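Dear colleague,

As promised, here are the two records you asked about, laid out in our usual form so they can be pasted straight into your sheet.

NAME FIELD: protein one
SEQUENCE, THEN STRUCTURE:
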Amino acid sequence: MNTKFFTTISIVLLLAGCAGGTANPIFNSSVKKAYIYAPGEADTLGLPAKFSKATGEIRYCASGMVQLVQQRKNEALAGIAEACGGEDKYGIIDELQADATGKFMGVDVKCNGNAGRAIYFKCKGTKPKPTGYDK
């Protein structure tokens, strides 16, 4: 085998390793839908008291190019607005580091390293139907 073959294989393997990262727009994951808590579920999160008033959360990956991170955050905020019935129908409680996954071609993908973020929010007015279990 010649050097050109090994060089080509090395480059292909290197690119394949980089392809899964969120810096590559082709392999970039999208934000999942907002998760709406069942009554009392927010109290079971083990977070400070201010989170007990949360209607739900939405998670996204905050790694990769700045433009892509901002796009995912904007997609997350749009998801909150959709869940609450409009952009003026919610308030953000806080944003924390969290385990997060996104969707890529219908498959859940995990964020790289500590890049997962969760935005905790409270809907103003009518609370949407819970996503998870009922207590």
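NAME FIELD: protein two
SEQUENCE, THEN STRUCTURE:
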Amino acid sequence: MVNEERYFDELQKIIGDTKSAEGINERWKEVLERLDQLSIEYAKELQAETGIRYEKNKELYAIWQFPPYRLLAMNLILSRWIGWQSVPENIHLVSEWGRIETAYDTGRNSYVEYAKGQNV
């Protein structure tokens, strides 16, 4: 099972190094580079846990090499961090789970409709 706490702690370290989340702009590039590294590590753990591989042109690849899995890993890392920050920072007023779930479901449902039209 993926150790989400480790990724939360690593993100908290880099953002915490700014002394506050509001100060992230001064080190934004560094934060994004670290998040990118964490997404690779997280995707590798996801692959080890699930055994899933990415198939392209009938070849199998590691999932960390492809954007959907890397972005999923980033989303999971950031969702945990945002959940942690939501109470003291009142972020929960605009970032509740429903918005995240609705956005995900809308994307998934749009693809299902698209695939039906394309006979995929």
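A couple of things worth noting about protein two: Helices lie at 4-16, 28-50, 67-89, 97-118. The first strand starts at residue 54 and ends at 56.

Best,
R.
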